[in-house]
TrEMBL record:
Similarity annotation: Belongs to the DAMOX/DASOX family.
Protein name per the record: D-amino-acid oxidase
Keywords for this protein: FAD, Flavoprotein, Oxidoreductase
UniProt-annotated binding residues for D-dopa: R308, G336
Keyword Transmembrane among record annotations: no
A GO MF term: D-amino-acid oxidase activity
GO CC entries: cytoplasm
Cofactor(s) of this protein: FAD
InterPro entries xref list: D-amino_acid_oxidase_CS (IPR006181), DAO (IPR023209), FAD-dep_OxRdtase (IPR006076)
Superkingdom of this protein's organism: Eukaryota
GO BP annotations, alphabetical order: D-amino acid catabolic process
Residues annotated to bind FAD: T198
Length: 374
């Protein structure tokens, strides 16, 4: 019996889910999406991401990131064509930001964080290393992803496993069934399972219409200047929606200067005033990035804005039976941590698909391991 898996959405969550599901010979996998890797559209979040590994979950909900780090680290060491490299990360804290803040990234700034046992070389920084205006900081080994390379690499890995890609626009999640491939006349009949990885699209997609979804707008400046290590701070003096982070993508991908985390803002056009503040903040913190010349020393590639798929209720990774008996496995609402939780969440998607298969009488004894590090 062959199961039809239709993944709706070709961002990092959908592609990683498709990749892990395609490792089972019991599944045929089709990815359908309005946007594919290579596209740059405000509706398509994944190309705009930084993207790095800075834990944002609480210890209670850290499974996604704990399970993703070893696989991304393995890719750095063994698969250079994936477009990922290690980069030291420094996080700086201000006491005034730590009092009653509601920023979604708060756990990143904990003084005794759960991730110190996961990410290598963690240490608290000496007070002398803290830049002016900051009260404490930490350092650890992280990584940064060239999203243009990595998304295409995921597509290539999926194609190697027989995944089919189709451009499509659907208005209701049930419409994905029209793209099933397996011979449903087989005995016993195959199961059709839809994976909903539509990100912010889940707000309006029929059959989902998750009203807890909202955009978390992120504006960035991409420059040619190099920066080591990556930097993140707990806050800025330019408003609660403006934040500071900077990271260098591998393989000539440039350096990302950020940014904003503006929940509810749908604007796709970069704001020149915000861009100026972003550049000033980064140069003030790391003057070496511009060779001591101020923002005039920055070589700008482009200004950009993307919409993170923020979900007020947190990420949704669960199975659901629709009223017509169709099974849907949801994997959306990752806000700003889609890449760093991608393998952990996709692993859970496979587990939920396998639960559905068991309910339909399938034997899972011969299923392969998901990761080489298991």
């Amino acid at each position: 019996m062959v199961n039809d898996i239709i993944v709706v959405g070709a961002g990092v969550s959908g592609l990683t889910s498709a990749l892990l599901l395609s490792r089972s010979k019991a599944n045929t996998v089709t990815v359908i999406a309005k946007h594919m890797p290579g596209d740059y559209d405000i509706e398509y979040a994944s190309p705009w991401a930084g993207a790095n590994f800075l834990p944002m979950a609480t210890a209670k909900h850290s499974r996604w990131e704990r399970r993703t780090w070893p696989e991304l680290a393995r890719l750095v060491e063994q698969v250079p064509e994936a477009g990922i490299h290690f980069q030291t990360s420094r996080i700086f804290r201000r006491e005034k930001d730590m009092q009653g803040s509601s920023c979604p990234t708060d756990p990143m700034f904990d003084r005794d964080p759960w991730f110190q046992s996961v990410l290598p070389d963690y240490k608290e920084l000496d007070a002398a290393a803290d830049p002016r205006g900051h009260d404490s900081g930490c350092e650890f080994k992280s990584l940064c992803i060239n999203t243009a390379m990595y998304l295409q690499w995921l597509v290539g890995q999926c194609l190697r496993n027989g995944v089919v890609f189709k451009r499509a626009i659907i208005s209701h999640i049930k419409e994905a069934r029209a793209y099933k491939r397996a011979d449903t006349a087989a005995s016993p009949p195959a199961i059709t399972i839809i994976i909903n990885a539509t990100g912010l699209g889940s707000l309006k997609l029929g059959g989902v219409q998750d009203e807890s979804m909202a955009p978390a707008r992120g504006q960035i400046v991409l420059v040619r200047n190099e920066l080591h290590p990556m930097h993140t701070t707990s806050g800025t003096d330019d408003g609660t929606s403006e934040i500071l982070y900077a990271m260098q993508r591998p393989a000539g991908g440039g350096t990302i200067l950020g940014g904003t985390y503006d929940i509810g803002n749908w604007e796709s056009v970069p704001d020149p005033n915000i861009a100026l503040r972003i550049m000033r903040r980064v140069v003030d913190l790391c003057p070496e990035i511009a060779g001591g010349k101020g923002i005039e020393g920055l070589s700008v590639v482009r200004h950009a804005a993307g919409l993170r798929p923020y979900r007020k209720l947190g990420v949704r990774v669960e199975k659901e039976a629709l009223d017509d008996g169709t099974w849907v496995v949801h994997n959306y609402g990752h806000a700003g941590w889609g890449y760093q939780g991608s393998y952990g969440c996709a692993e859970a998607v496979v587990e939920l698909v396998n639960e559905i298969r068991v309910l339909n009488g399938q034997d899972l004894a011969s299923e392969p391991k998901l990761f080489s590090w298991d």
